Amino acid sequence: MSSIExxxxxxxxxxxxxxxxxxxxxxxREFVALLGPSGCGKTTTMNMIxxxxxxxxxxxxxxxxxITHTSMGKRGVGFVFQNYAIFIHMxxxxxxxxxxxxAGTPRAEIDRQVADMAKLMRLTRQINWPAERLSVNELQxxxxxxxxxxxPNIFLLDEPLSNLDAAFRAEMRTELKHLxxxxxxxMVYVTHDQLEAMSMADRIAVMDxxxxxxxxxxxxxxxxxxxxxVANFIGAPSMNLLxxxxxxxxxxxxLDFGEAGSLTPGNDDPLTQICQRAQQDRVxxxxxxxxVKLEPDGGGGLSMKVTFVERIGxxxxxxxxxxxxEVKAVGDNQIPARIGDIMRVGSGGLSHLFDADTGRRxx
Amino acid sequence: MTTxxxxxxxxxxxxxxxxxxKLGRWMTLPTQLLLVFIFAFPGAMIIYVSMSWWGPLDGVPxxxxxxxxxxxxxxxxxLEDERFWGSMWRxxxxxIVVVPVEFFLGLGLAILFVDNFAxxxxxxxxxxxxxxVVPAVAGYMFYILFQSNGPINQLLSLITGYEIDLVWxxxxxxxxxxxMVADIWQWTPLMxxxxxxxxxxxxxxxxxxxxxxxxxxxxxxxxxxxxxMRIVMVIALVIRAVEAFKLFDVMYVMTKGGPGxxxxxxxxxxxxxxxxxxxxxxxxxxxxxVLMFLTALGGIGIAILANAxxxxxxxxxxx
Lengths: 363, 319
Hints:
heterodimer, A: alpha+beta, Rossmann fold, CATH 2.40.50.140, 2 domains, 6-stranded mixed sheet, 9 helices, 21 strands, about 25% helix, about 35% strand, elongated, B: mainly alpha, MetI-like fold, disordered N terminus
């Protein structure tokens, strides 16, 4: 049983600040994903939890134990490397048994545990193969099994699915979640793939440029992004973010998008109150492509021209362009849109406002 | 113009691959000719001369050696030549002592140099220096060091507190030791260099993974690093073992093979027979015999490597 508490964690490489004043608390048996684009500091954070990298400042605690200066071999964490770091000169058995052998576990016990783990990881048939003969998918399972066999309280995974083919990746997502449930461990999972983070994690920590942007449940991060970066990063295709001004006119509030037109939220729309509470008039209006309402020209909303239609099986992604603005809309595959059509764009669902200068959520 | 399936020259059209092979043969021809001149021709010449009594004082060029053809008399003589076997034995002893000592010293140093420490680059350069020294100069250096009133004896006196004036180079046993010390000094750096390269080639991620699985230093070394260095180790050992047979310059400067024949190695013996006794046909026989021996030695090394590969492949088949 282990919780993880990161306090003011900082890592500098020369002039570069890879992680800056990171505070993060991970509960016992929680599955947390560190999500962000490459170079955001997520792997560095993970390495500091594992002890591979020493922090430049701040502390790492497991439960209440400060292990900031404990060497990586003594922290008792399981770690799955992005490239798996399998001992390719050994057999599958030897790989699985490694952690037990170096700890001096009796042979009979090792045999039993290795057999169990091989079964769980579906490697029983390959148990005596040299590890270098395994496929990438099998290597991945072996990497997880090898770390899991020593029953670490904390399990760290560094983009473990990024080398896999798409079909197997989907399968592994379910399997990993199931495994975590079975092993009853605290898991920290580094990924740049928001789909992996959304589908597996209990909570997601979104990072950018070494700074924690938001920490919350997948739905929380999706529905209430705290800033422009999170709004843009979560969701595919990403959220439409349009610069606009809040204009008060005859007691009514509307959002002015320049030549493209304007949107007037209804009186019962929470957006109206948000607009009235906003400290400044220059804001960014955000709404998801799935919530875009498209109507033929002539109605309300923003006037935009269809520039491209992506038909991806069950859904279509419509690219629209208006004066100074671009919008993507997702609709069903029957949507009657052709390149060159002029359409009226509005938001039919949850909308968000962000401060144009700071990028922070306005509410 | 008529199209015809038979061409005038009658040469069949070559496929692209065949053309490539043909071109390749032509392009490697200069190298192959060079190999003939630097290896096949002298080799054949030595075998030819070794089967005669021909010598430089006979007054006829070497290709008239057939006039004194004696087939295998030189080889028969070789089998009974005590100086030959003595020098072979001494060379072998030097190899048996010097190569393992250099190996373990080199390995120890290489392990120290994997991690970073202050002034690592300086130590690194200093450590490689002996290898760069011209062997004859190194020989002269040790010749001075091992004089009876030289620095080695002075140092030993200082450490032990007794007056030590060991005779090094004129004593049969001590001269042997002095020569080995000189060789170890000069060639441990090469071992160090090769083994360090091998150690640095061990994937860092696997070492980290082993650490995270709870392995200590020794376990990581034996289970991860060593298996991955096996090939590099065999290469280093074979190179130095073969080179031990070539040991000449250092010891010739230090002892000239003396006192008597106490430090006469095979190279020094060949030199003496060639230039002092001028028995060139006999030298050819010795040279050929040594070549065969070293080929066998190299063969054993390659066999060890091949065996390791085969084991791996066998393991692949078992499934």
